[in-house]
Amino acid sequence: MKPKLLSIVASLLLSLPFSSAQTAAPLDKPVIQRDASGVITLTCATPGAHIRYSLDGSDPTPKAGQYLAPIELPYGGTVKARAFSEDRQQRSDLAEATVDAVRVGPRPPSSVVPVTQNRDWPGYDWTKRHAAVCALVRERKPRIVFIGDSITHFFGGEPCDWRRVGERVWKKYYGSRNAVDLGFGWDRTENVLWRLQHGELDGASPRVAVIHIGTNNLGTNTPAEIAAGIRAICDEIRARSSRTYILLLAIMPRGETPDATRAKLGEVNKLIALLGFEDGITFLDIGPYLVNRDGTISRDVMGDFLHPTEKGYAIWAGQMEPTLKRLLGEQ
Fold first, then answer.
1. Considering the entire predicted model, what is its pTM?
2. Of 270, 298, 273, residue with least CA distance to 283
């Protein structure tokens, strides 16, 4: 190739734009600090970076929970954190710290330690949904709130940021009742606790809070730990809105046929049923109406044997309606 032609090619190559991943400066590693009471704060010197963290020993990925507020770890533990660019394409080096306990006693299970999550991203953005829920609750001051995971998230109502499988059922039963959907895909009890402690009931005092949570904890916690997380949620609601009636639902059955997971789920339900004897809490198990006589689940009720179809949501709403009417003072 002639020298003049080489010079032209080189000039063209130099003029081509590089991707942000090639030209962006490295992200600063987060700094982990703890105060005397065991409260952890995370900071990053890179403007616009998002810090994602874990408390379970795992390496924070782009789907890890975003750091949004100080983390309370009075019983000690391990914190890992990475900074990510807004598009989650860049990541910093890992920051890690093991902190000692400042409070005497056994370390509580993960089911009762409030944390954020983003496991379903990019299906929806957990952080953005939390902000939308907080704003909607302040504006609407709902009469009914539905609190839970994706099983609640897909039901219907506002805010809408993903699938709404049961929307027609929702409109039929709750469209005129000022209800808000506080269901978040992939949430566990610890994520619901974080949400309640960071604004999702602020400025409102619902007449009824319908709670269905715990199925996503089955793989990581014991029945007693899951029940402890559900109790903590009930306690949090009563502390923030003492006049709110709690309608606590048994965890719905899952899996096409009865198995070990279903048996573990049953153990949790036996424990949380006891909460129904406390003032202000009503326990209701609609599980028997979602399964066939032989214990199997039909795809027309739960398409993936976990999430209700429109028919499944109709069963849920219909079986819950008499109890909900009583708690709302409509009969």
1. 0.92
2. 273
| CATH number belonging to the domain at 126-328, selected among 3.40.50.1260, 3.30.70.330, 3.40.50.2300, 3.40.50.1110 | 3.40.50.1110
Cis bond leading into 159, ω under 30°? yes
| pLDDT score of 15 more than 90 | no
Report pLDDT for 4.
53
Q: Under 8 Å CB-to-CB from 137, ≥6 apart: which residues?
A: 145, 180, 182, 199, 200, 201, 202, 203, 204
Please report the pLDDT score of residue 331 as a whole number.
77
- 124 DSSP assignment: S
Per the structure block, which two tokens stand in for 287?
A: 């599980």
Record the tokens describing residue 196, joined without a space.
């309640």
Q: Using the 8-state DSSP alphabet, how is residue 206 labeled? A: -
Sheet holding 281-284, edge to edge: 179-183, 144-148, 208-212, 245-249, 281-284
Give the contacts of 266 (CB within 8 A, at least 6 positions apart): none
- What lies within 8 Å, CB to CB, of 289 at 6+ separation is 315, 319
Evaluate if residue 204 carries a pLDDT over 70: yes
Which tens digits make up the pLDDT trace of 135-177? 999 999 999 999 999 999 999 999 999 899 999 999 999 999 9
Q: Tell me, what amino acid is at 42?
A: L
Place domain 23-107 in its CATH homologous superfamily.
Immunoglobulins (2.60.40.10)
> Which pLDDT score, from 0 to 100, does residue 11 have?
52
CATH 2.60.40.10 residue spans of the chain: 23-107
Structure tokens at 95: 């920051």
pLDDT band, very low/low/confident/very high, at 25 (cuts 50, 70, 90): confident
Whether 286 and 316 have beta carbons less than 8 Å apart is answered as: yes
Location of structure tokens 């793989």: 219
Find the mean pLDDT for residues 182-194. 98
Say how far apart CA 167 and CA 150 lie, in whole Å.
Answer: 14
